[in-house]
Amino acid sequence: MDPKIYDMGDIDIAWCPGCGNFNILRSLKLALAELAIPPEKLVVVSGIGQAAKIPHYFRTHFFNGLHGRALPPATAIKVVNPELTVIAESGDGDMYGEGGNHFLHTIRRNPNITNIVHNNMVYGLTKGQASPTSQLGFRTPIQVKGVFLEPFNPLSLAISLGAPFVARAFAGDVERTKDILKMAISHKGYALVDILQPCVSFNKVNTSQWFKENTYYLEVSHNPENRDEALKISLQQDRLPLGVIYRCVGKRTFEENVGVYDRDQTPLSLRKLDRKNSLKTLIQARS
Amino acid sequence: MNKKDVSIVLCGAAGQGVQTVENILVRLLRRAGFHVFATKEYMSRIRGGSNSTEIRISSERVSAPVDRIDLLLPFHPDALNHLMTRISPKTTVIGDRKNICLDCPAEVTEFIDIPFAEIAEEIGGKLFINIIAAGVILGMLDIDMGMVSDFISSFFAKKDEGIVRKNIEAVKLGCQRGKELLESGKARFALKNPSAKNELLLNGAETVGMGALAGGCDFLSSYPMSPSTGVMTFLSQQMENFGVVVEQAEDEIAAINMALGGSYAGARTMVTTSGGGFALMTEGVSLSGMIETPVVVHIAQRPGPATGLPTRTEQADLELVLYAGHGEFPRIIFAPGTLQDAFFLTQKAFNLADKYQIPVFILTDQYFMDSFTNIPPFDLDGIESKRHIVKTKKDYKRYVLTEDGISPRGIPGFGDGLVGVDSDEHDEESHITEDLELRTRMVDKRLKKMDLILSEIVPPEFLGSEDYEILLVGWGSTYHVLKEALAEFNNKDIALLHFKQVYPLHPGTKDFIEKAKRTIFIENNATSQFGRIIKLNTGYTTGESLLKYNGLPFTVEDIVEGLKKKLS
């Protein structure tokens, strides 16, 4: 499919020139086009922040909800209509900070959705405060002595909670980010893609150059199905690993577990509302 | 003793099986054709304390609590203290004297000693005390023994055969004692004309749940919180038959955001919670207003602030619900007074939420949730669930500016268009905008829906004669208690106006109030919140109030005595 199908034409984009978000959007459009997912079958759910504006910049159904709350509606949308491809996408502050509790429990719930997190280790839209992934010592107008909170590690957390697909990408590498996104979207079950990206306006430490020097792609020999090994890799701090870190196939999804599709595959949204017969039976049983 | 209704109170510690006795009695007595009403008050603990259940049994319909106790069954020594203020010379206490009170307080004038513990020992242990007690009551009411054994075997059907047999033995021994009491004339309850056969026996929680099913609800996400959890439990049990997703969310914030996501995708969604949980949901309520995505929110009130009294009742979250959510957007608030209301208003709530793309609230309370009564089966012929969803075309715009404010709602995956919703102020295609002229038009569009909402308000129910001088005003769960108190007064100068839609108010409200010489707001809260809403909306400035906020519901006596004081 031609990725142009997602283009919106001449629109005003609120991202700073040089922002990593542009590359992520490019990778995503390419991945979706190669997977032949048309805009009419795609829902992007986002929270608040610069990253969360992404569904306004390409053609798709979208639910741009509240700060930190992309995952609960994304889960619900998928279970109400499993025929849709659902992506929950926001920044590190939104997903790991404000929405931290949903991050934990969505992994446990395992809906068949893709969770893309733009991780620039800083708060952009509120102008440069620490995010959950900011590194120790990172100075901001609020963290004047430097960050002293232990940085949030989404990868090891996701692996330990049983996420069936956990990957990390670097926004600067459009081609390989696209490949990782394709695998994540095609994976059945919850898939996390943490995408490292520079923030040209507020993070002068973790720059594009810094990411190039401090990341590496996992060797082909890495077996992502080995959970212990994946957990070990996810804990690496000196150099950050890129690629599919953990994957397991066959885990039952939320939609499969809730039971509404056991006998009838029709999405809930398209079912008939009239339930008078079942109601009559229920009332009779009670009288 | 010879009266038209009997008020029986069972009181014991949590874990002593008072609940089981209540369940057996209300179901069996209803089956025997009596009208029953049961309400309970309990402590927020799993074992111990003092919990009581009041069961009113009558040949006529009864649906309100009374202070009066005709028959009291204490299961532990603290029970008498717990209920002391309600014990009168007319109260017959039936209990195990040795274990309850060798030296009973002076208030207890009639004590019938039944050695429950000894009898239970013969059967197999203390465990059977509650079933024997249930038997005593059934015997005193002269319920057919065959019917009792049949019921007990079906009630315990899931337990093994030995246990079923022992329970039948226990209930029979109890029945025998009860019949002896009846024959000796010691405790005679002349309940005649059983006429409630084939009626439904439901509590408020089940009825709200049933109304949700009738309204097409196919998705409920909630976080357990007393006293609202009963709705979730009920729907979980109907999950398979009705195709409902019931998900226990990680917190209330997730719950309402899930419900909005589900609704956006085309489901009819609901959350059930109580005041504290609802406080967490308020940002989501505002999101519903902004993205014009329907959701039905059930709030079972309990006393606050904060954790308050988790298992008790109050009507103090009306203003919270009315003003919840930042920004300005339309909403509807229902407060059912009867089980019929709970069923039909919940059903209606789903249609209205869908039609106007707004949050619709059902406001109940612990008393309403946990009280059982029998009612005639619901007439399903009049109800209709209509989806207000359009199939989208290629050029579909979610927030198209329309005359009446309602933009046809599409859902993803139904039609050729793209459906976006946005919590930011947005343009017709739901993209973020800072066009401030458009902002004004979008606000006007959302608020415009209120005009149509105002055209279909559920009117308040008026009881009494048209030339009243004193108007009692109540709302929500106090309907039956106010009605019974009014009947007891039997004074043509006093009338009752009861609201089951508390927002927006019916336009006729002002006329009712202006006609009265005195208006008395009767509310289960400390500041007369509804009175305030009426004053705000009608310009009416005076008015008295009769309030109760100790965590218990009004009894008929509370209203009668309270009004007598005011009117004397």
Topology:
The complex is a heterodimer of chains A (287) and B (568).
Chain A: H1 20-34, E1 42-46, E2 61-64, H2 71-80, E3 85-91, H3 92-98, H4 100-109, E4 114-119, H5 154-160, E5 165-170, H6 174-186, E6 191-196, H7 208-214, E7 215-217, H8 227-234, E8 240-247, H9 254-258, H10 276-286
Parallel strand pairs in A: 1-2, 1-3, 3-4, 4-6, 5-6, 7-8
Antiparallel strand pairs in A: 5-8
Chain B: E1 5-14, H1 18-31, E2 35-41, E3 48-58, E4 71-74, H2 78-82, E5 92-95, H3 97-100, E6 110-113, H4 116-123, H5 129-140, H6 145-155, H7 161-184, E7 200-203, H8 204-214, E8 219-222, H9 229-242, E9 245-248, H10 252-264, E10 269-273, H11 275-291, E11 295-301, H12 318-323, E12 332-334, H13 339-356, E13 359-365, H14 366-370, E14 372-375, E15 420-422, H15 436-454, E16 461-463, E17 470-475, H16 479-489, E18 494-499, E19 501-503, H17 509-515, E20 518-523, H18 529-538, E21 544-547, H19 556-567
Parallel strand pairs in B: 1-4, 4-5, 5-6, 8-9, 8-10, 10-11, 11-13, 12-13, 17-18, 17-20, 20-21
Antiparallel strand pairs in B: 1-3, 2-3, 2-14, 7-14, 12-19, 16-18
Provide structural commentary.
- The complex is a heterodimer of chains A (287) and B (568).
- Chain A is an alpha/beta fold and 287 residues long.
- Chain A has one domain (3-258): Rossmann fold (3-Layer(aba) Sandwich).
- Chain A contains 10 helices and 8 strands.
- Chain A has helices at residues 20-34, 71-80, 92-98, 100-109, 154-160, 174-186, 208-214, 227-234, 254-258, 276-286, and strands spanning 42-46, 61-64, 85-91, 114-119, 165-170, 191-196, 215-217, 240-247.
- Chain A has an 8-stranded mixed β-sheet with strand order 2-1-3-4-6-5-8-7, with helices on both faces.
- In chain A, α6 (174-186) links the parallel β5 (165-170) and β6 (191-196).
- In chain A, α1 (20-34) packs across α6 (174-186).
- The longest helix of chain A is centred in the N-terminal third of the chain and has 15 residues, at 20-34.
- The radius of gyration of chain A is 20 Å and the shape is globular.
- The N and C termini of chain A lie far apart (59 Å).
- The model of chain A has no long low-confidence stretch (mean pLDDT 96).
- By secondary structure, chain B is α/β, with parallel strands linked by helices.
- Chain B folds into 4 domains: 5-184, Pyruvate-ferredoxin oxidoreductase, PFOR, domain III (Pyruvate-ferredoxin Oxidoreductase, domain 3), CATH 3.40.920; 201-375, 3-Layer(aba) Sandwich (Rossmann fold), CATH 3.40.50.970; 389-456, no CATH class; 461-567, Rossmann fold (3-Layer(aba) Sandwich), CATH 3.40.50.920.
- Helix content of chain B is 39%, strand content 19%.
- Chain B has 19 helices and 21 strands.
- Chain B has helices at 18-31, 78-82, 97-100, 116-123, 129-140, 145-155, 161-184, 204-214, 229-242, 252-264, 275-291, 318-323, 339-356, 366-370, 436-454, 479-489, 509-515, 529-538, 556-567; strands at residues 5-14, 35-41, 48-58, 71-74, 92-95, 110-113, 200-203, 219-222, 245-248, 269-273, 295-301, 332-334, 359-365, 372-375, 420-422, 461-463, 470-475, 494-499, 501-503, 518-523, 544-547.
- An 8-stranded mixed β-sheet of chain B has the order 6-5-4-1-3-2-14-7. In chain B, strands 9-8-10-11-13-12-19 form a 7-stranded mixed β-sheet, with helices on both faces.
- In chain B, α10 (252-264) packs parallel to α11.
- The longest helix of chain B has 24 residues, at 161-184.
- Chain B is globular and about 85 Å long.
- The two termini of chain B are 31 Å apart.
- The mean pLDDT of chain B is 94.
- Chains A and B meet through β2, α2, α4 and α10 of A and β7, α8, α9, α10 and α11 of B.
- β2 (61-64) of chain A pairs parallel with β15 (420-422) of chain B.
